[in-house]
Amino acid sequence: MKRRSFLKGTLATGAAAVAANAGLLTPSTVLAEWNEKAFKAKTVDDGLSAMFGTTSMSESGDIDLSAPAIAENGAVTPIKIDATKMDGVESIAIMATKNPSPMVCRYDFSGPAVGYVSTRIRMGETMNVVAVVKAGGKLYKKEQEVKVTIGGCGG
Question: What pTM value is reported for the model?
């Protein structure tokens, strides 16, 4: 490592530490906003209403939801949602119907981004995983049951 690179890194780290200690970098100004009401909702309908303003969705064959039929460990259940066949995908949300807070995550897309998400979610028991895709101002869903053999949410 060159001396100049080392000094730049040290200076940047020191400046960030001073700003954090002075209260200039607080989580409310550094992190993105989140929809607290949707993520703390106790039912699927409450979460959908808080997130999208409606609960009306239609089934779509253009959404490919890939989840294991049997999850060996509910703490790390792999989920893939492919909505690339749909035009104008604005967002993708994942819900686990029996979790204490059913809204698991939401991804927003803009510009030329394609509607594809791959993640791992936590599931406490056997339940349905629901992929909710907002495209063209309308909500579409795809649902699949996942059987959990070892609980992930406190089990």
Answer: 0.74
